[in-house]
Amino acid sequence: MTSPQTGPAAVICGLGAVLPHRAVPNEELCAELDTTDEWIRTRTGIRERRIADAGVSTEDLAVAAATQALESSGTNDVHAVVLATTTPDHLMPATAPSVAARLGLTGVAAFDVAAVCTGFVYALAAAAGLITTQTARTVLVVGADRMSQLPAADDRTTRPLFADGAGAVVLRSGTATEPGALGPMVLGSDGAHRDLLIVPHGGHMKMQGPNLFRHAVDRMSAVTRQAVQLAGWRLADVDRIVPHQANARITAAVGRHLTIDADRRVQNIEYVGNTGAASIPLALAQASAGGTLRPGHRVCLTAFGAGLTWGATTVTWPDLKPAAHPHHDTAMERT
Ligand code: COA
Questions:
Q1: pTM for the whole thing?
Q2: Does the N terminus or the C terminus of the chain have fewer Cβ atoms within 10 A?
């Protein structure tokens, strides 16, 4: 799918993210699972992850990240809320309308997007579509997940990986040539491989790790190439790739395939784990706050997830204001 080069384009004008306060280091998992800190670190790149307290909902995480993004954008004049999540608070209704209502956006369009770890890129595409068809001038896009609730308590292959968090961007109507404008979107899926990572109704997550690993590397490499090419760039032009954080070894393998070395790869999995749909906006917020992502950088966002699903897009990084106030909440903090 490509976005039109004439007419309005979707432009990033705000960014925010939050993490639950509670950090769970590998050592803490070793007390409950037959695993070691060394195994988790060397096989996944993860040292610790943030886990939400029992009373914290996906809606709470989404509202906190969205508040930061709205502050950063300097506007509350939002016409739609798109929430990417795998862990909605209810089977029905969707969580996005509750998020919108909590933010005082009653009456606006609001819906969830379910594409697991590719959810944020799919949500960006849906939001960009709302803008380019002039359905909405400004759209809040949130990725929020409590992935830690999906694995079985005794599953050593999945529990170390999955964690909680939320990130958000505000998109406004603008022009395709300005900084922050989202480039062409590439999205895909292959449901024939749904059993590689699945949570059956009423059950726990089942994962075929090594097979999923291979698909993740192949799909993220291919979709990154496609998005970069559609943007009219070469891989050598890309200053930063911001991949979904599933496993540091997956990111490294994608980097090897594309000849994108470590200092051009944004990575924050070490202290956050795999936060599902929150992963890319969290990485953007942390990299932007930490100075590894700077205005003018040519960036490719690339994701892969259960489904299987995959997606990528490009953006020349804009000069965004950080949110003025840190998030004051006992359960979570601004990243
Ligand atoms: N601690 C210690 N040993 C572990 C372990 C753990 N936490 N988890 C698995 N093992 C064991 C396995 O039981 C296996 O033992 P065996 O050789 O005796 O059978 C051995 O380690 C190797 O397991 P394997 O699954 O082949 O390891 P791996 O190198 O592929 O790493 C993953 C496992 C899950 C980290 C890796 O496959 C992965 O990251 N896959 C993709 C996951 C993913 O991307 N998920 C989300 C998609 S968005």
A1: 0.96
A2: N
